[in-house]
Each structure stands twice: as C-alpha cells, then as structure tokens.
Specification:
Blueprint: H1 5-12, H2 17-31, H3 39-51, H4 61-64, E1 68-73, E2 86-90, E3 96-99, E4 101-102, E5 105-106, H5 108-115, E6 120-125, E7 135-136, E8 145-148, E9 151-152, E10 154-155, E11 158-159, E12 161-164, E13 170-172, E14 176-178, E15 181-189, E16 198-204, E17 211-215, E18 223-227, E19 232-235, E20 243-249, E21 257-260, E22 263-264, E23 277-279, E24 281-283, E25 295-304, H6 312-323
Antiparallel strand pairs: 1-25, 2-3, 2-6, 4-5, 6-7, 6-8, 7-13, 8-9, 10-11, 12-25, 13-24, 14-23, 15-20, 15-25, 16-17, 16-24, 17-18, 18-19, 20-21, 21-22
C-alpha cells in the first residue's frame, strides 16, 4: 500500500510540532522515491523520527535580550558567541588553559582533566557581550577558585567561581561607561564575614559608586547592602543560599531599585540623584580601598547600560529556568 507524497506535502505545510515531524517524514519519503512501500515502512519511519528528533536551535539570554555592556557566565549566553568561558591556572605547575562550552555549559570535563587532581583558579572570565570587556587577575595569589582537589566547585548543581573573603577578585580590563544601568547577578553569599564588615560582590573604581555587598555589621548582618558613594541602602530581603539579584540604577527617581529572586526590595533610604560612572569594575572586592572581599560563589554577572526594568521578568525567567533558584 503506497502513501501519496501529496498528503505528506500537505501536512508538512501546517504549523506546530507535528509539522516538524511530518516535514522530516516528507524528506524520507522523497529519498525513498516518492512513495512508502508499506504501512510497516511508514510506521518504522515515524518511530525513527520520534526517537531521533531534530535538535532545537539554542537561543541564549543575550539573543533574546541584547545590548549588554558586559556579560560573564559559566553558561553560554549568546548563540553567536564563539569564544571561551574562562581561562584557568592549575596550582600544580601554574600552567594556564582556556576552557570552552559544551552543550551550552562550561566544559567541566576538560576543566577537571586539566586540573588533574589539583586546584584551578580563574585568571580570566571572558565577556560574552561582544564588547571585549574581559574580567581578569594576573596575580596568582588573589585569583578566585573554580576547581578544588580535581572537582569543579558547584552551587545548586552548576559550576561556580569561589571567592575566599581574603583577597580574591577580578577586574575588568577596560572601563565601562555606565549611566542608566541594570545588573543581573547569580550569587551565593556565606554566613560569616571573617574580620570584615562587608562582603562586596562588585564595585566600580571611581568615587561615584555603584556597588553591591552583603552586610555583616550590627543588626543588619547578612542583609544586602548597596553603597552609592554617599549613603548606605540596606535591603532585608536576603538569604544565604543561591540568589538571583536584579539591581537597577535608573536616571530618574527612585534612582535605585532591586529584586531578589523576583521579589521587590524595600530600602530604608534611597539616593538623592542618579549614579553614573566611566570606570573599571571590580568583581569580588571594594576596589577604592582594596578591601571587603567577597565571600561566596558567583555564577553569572550581566550588566546593561540601559534600563531593563521592562524586560526584568523575562530575563529573570531565563536565568531561573537554567539555575532553578526559586
């Protein structure tokens, strides 16, 4: 019993998942000369297509929400990005190697093979925005760790960069001109801050400040803390587990806005004006004094020089779908 190619062509013009299977089936019918020899052959072809579906094209966060000023992640953020994720140094001989992505995530197998049972540290976290603003540290003693005794450091099952609260940091290799800024960060901050009052996720280098830290002082211990160079802004929405933080410094009032795991923050005070800068950014420390180092894990740090509040929920959904934070 033959199956007419015309029927297959008709269904291939329809939309939806079934159309994709029928379209592929059409190609197989054409390859068989335009007919299907028997119902059993058709059944065999359909079963093959169901068991071996065509891979869905990968779409990254930056494909859907473009225009980032800098973007650091241990997952692939843009399907046009062909560079590496990080460059690492292993402790045994100080050799360095670039580590790429596999299946859109950090290639931890290659990373652990390179580490060869030892520790490995991040020397460069490559910028996926296309602007070439990599974050790096050439000082071996203050590079954050990515592999411990041969095993990739994980947070909630995903690779993470570990900052030790003592001297670890990465600096952008060039300045970033930031005005109407939006940050999206995936981090885990530890409970204790050894001999320090704050644990900074980031700060810029100039006097006009955009920064974010975990506070470890007085009654506000373990709360999120934004310092703008003039005043402190403390948010009580905070846990010690992995979190997604969306931080905004708009050009118009309220000049500061933040969401933690999708929930709005409530600051005790707000800036009296917008905070802009054209400086390098330190990830993992308060740079003006080279103090207040970060204590915890960092997995993603994305900065837009634009107000992304209208895209916030979409960006947060993309991040949460990958990391399963909340």
């Amino acid at each position: 019993m033959a199956l007419g190619l015309g029927i297959v062509v008709y269904w291939a013009t329809q939309s939806g998942p079934a159309a994709a299977i029928v379209s592929a089936f059409k190609s197989r019918v054409i390859a068989d000369g335009g007919t299907v020899e028997s119902p059993s052959c058709a059944k065999s072809d359909v079963k093959f297509l169901l068991d071996n579906p065509e891979p869905v094209d990968f779409t990254g966060l930056l494909n859907d929400y473009s225009g980032a000023a800098a973007a650091y992640s241990l997952r692939l953020l843009d399907n046009t990005y062909s560079g590496n994720a990080i460059k690492v140094r292993r402790s045994s001989d100080n050799a360095e190697q670039d580590i790429a992505f596999t299946n859109n995530e950090l290639d931890t197998a290659s990373l652990e093979t390179f580490a060869s049972g030892t520790d490995a540290f991040v020397t460069t976290w490559y910028d996926q925005s296309g602007n070439g603003v990599d974050a790096a540290n050439s000082n071996a003693s203050s590079q954050p760790k990515i592999v411990s005794s041969g095993s990739t450091i994980l947070e909630n099952g995903k690779a993470a960069v570990e900052f030790d609260n003592t001297d670890d940091y990465l600096d952008t290799i060039s300045t970033i001109n930031v005005s109407n800024s939006s940050y999206f960060i995936v981090a885990q901050m530890n409970a204790s801050i050894s001999s320090q009052d704050y644990s900074y996720i980031f700060s810029n280098h100039g006097s006009t400040r955009q920064s974010l830290a975990k506070r470890g002082q007085g009654t506000d211990t373990d709360k999120l803390y934004v310092y703008d160079g003039t005043a402190s802004h403390i948010d009580g929405l905070h846990s010690l587990s992995q979190e997604m933080i969306s931080l905004f410094f708009p050009l118009t009032p309220p000049y500061l806005d933040m969401y933690v795991d999708g929930s709005a923050s409530s600051f005790g005070s707000l800036p009296n004006g917008s905070k802009t800068f054209n400086d390098k950014i330190s990830i993992g420390r308060f740079q003006p004094n080279n103090t207040h180092f970060f204590d915890g894990h960092l997995q993603e740090f994305i900065l837009y020089n634009s107000d992304e509040t209208s895209n916030r929920t979409g960006i947060e959904t993309n991040i949460n779908d990958f990391y399963s934070i909340y």
